[in-house]
Amino acid sequence: MKKLKIDLELLVQSFGFDDEELGVEYLDTESGDIINIPKELLKVVNGELGEDDLADWHKELLKDAYAIKGSEQVRYFRVPDLEDSYLFNVMMDFTKEKAISPEIKQKLSKSLDKNNPTRSFKNVIFENPEEEKQWELFEEKNLEEHAVKWLDSIGIELE
Known about the structure:
By secondary structure, the protein is mainly alpha-helical. It is built from 8 helices and 5 strands. The chain is elongated. The mean pLDDT is 90.
């Protein structure tokens, strides 16, 4: 197991960065850096777009994009997106384990049965400031644990 200094908060944020229109997040397993490769650069390294079509600031990142393309799953690992089921399970666990009052617990349970459970759940949470604080702590702890498990799965241990 390789020990590496990684900004855990940034890694956790990267798990939620699931908009490929903006780019893709990678972990550099040599430096511990989280690198965002914009969509346009991915198109260049895949031969779908020419370098001349890039903005100057994108051109500065091309070296990283090509390095990642050549060492993906060796040195650079794509930070995976969180699956919808993961967040749903965290919301269910919070409802069962941490909800403060039976009334709130019931509202949260009902919210998870709706068409858009995430939105409904968060609406209930935001209506109850004390509950919101508990949710934020619970969610952060779970996301950090998820990040550590992912690191472990690729042979990395936090320094």
